[in-house]
C-alpha cells in the first residue's frame, strides 16, 4: 500500500500542476491570438486603404507606410504563430531546418519594420524642415524606391546570410546543444543564441543606428514646428496691432489658436511615436547585447517577454502611422462602411479655403516660407509649395 501510494504521488502532483497551469495557458493563448489578429487586420486595412484611395497614393510618405504595413503583416503571419505555438507547448515540433528559417524570417522582418520607421522619420524631416524644392529633389520616386528596397535588402545581411551559415553560433555550439535538450526529454526547443560579435553587429544595424536617426529627425521636427507656431503668432499679433478690424483680429486669434493646437498635437504625436518604439524594442535589444557578456544567464521567460513586446510594435504601427492621420481615418471609414457617401472627401474642384498647413501623417507644419519671406519666393517655389500643400491637405 505504501509503495503504491508513493508511486502515485508524482502522477497526482503532475495532474494538479497541469490543472493549475490551464487557466494561465488559456489566458496566454487569448492574449497572443488577440495580438496576431489585431496586427493582421490593422496592417491589411492600411494596405487596402492606400490601394483604393487615389489621394493617399499621391503622398510619398504613404509608400513607406504601405511597405511598413506589409513587413508587419508578414511578421504577424509568418513569425508570430510559430513563436506562439512554441511558447504555449514549450517545445519545437517543426525540425531544426525550419527553426533556422523561422529565426531568419524573424530577424529579417522585424529589422525591415524598424528600418521603415527610420525612413518615415527621414522623409518627414525633409518634408517639414527643408524647403519644398529640397524635399522634391531629395524624395524623388527613384530615391523612395531605393530607400524601400534598402529596408528589405539590408536585413538579409544580418538574418539569412549569417544564421543559415551558422556565424551567430561560432564558439557557443555546445551551449546551444545543452539548451536544445535542457529538459532531459526527447522534445527539443528552437534555440537562437548569438555570440558577442553577432549580437553587437545585429543590434547596432537593426536598432541603435535607426534609433539615433529617428531621435535626431523628430527632435528637429519638434523644434521646427514650435518655431513655426511662434512666428505665426508674432506676425499675427503685429498685424492686429497695426490696426486691423475687430473681425480681422478675431479671425487672426482663431487661426493662431488653431495652429497652436495643431502644432501641440503634432509634437505629442511625435512623442507617442518615439515612446512606443523605444518601449517596444529597447528591452529586447538591450537584453540582446547584455546576454552574451553575462554568460547567457537571462531567463527564458524574460527573453520571451522582451521578444513579444517587440512583436506588439507591429500591431501598434498601423495605429501610430495611419489611424492618427485624418486622411487614413476617412479611407478606413469608407472601407468599413462600404463606401458611404457621408465619409467621402469633397471634390477637389470645389471651392474652399486655401490650405495653409501641411499635415504629413500626424506631423503638421505651417508653410514657413510664406511667413519668413513675406511671400517673396520664386514662381517655381510657389508652384512646388502649393502642390505639396494641396496633396497633403487632401
Automatic annotation (TrEMBL):
GO terms for biological process: adenylate cyclase-activating adrenergic receptor signaling pathway; chemical synaptic transmission; positive regulation of MAPK cascade; regulation of appetite; system process. Its main location: membrane. CDD domains: 7tmA_5-HT4. Residues 42-321 form the G-protein coupled receptors family 1 profile domain. GO terms for cellular component: endosome membrane; plasma membrane; synapse. It is a multi-pass membrane protein. This is 5-hydroxytryptamine receptor 4. It comes from Seriola dumerili.
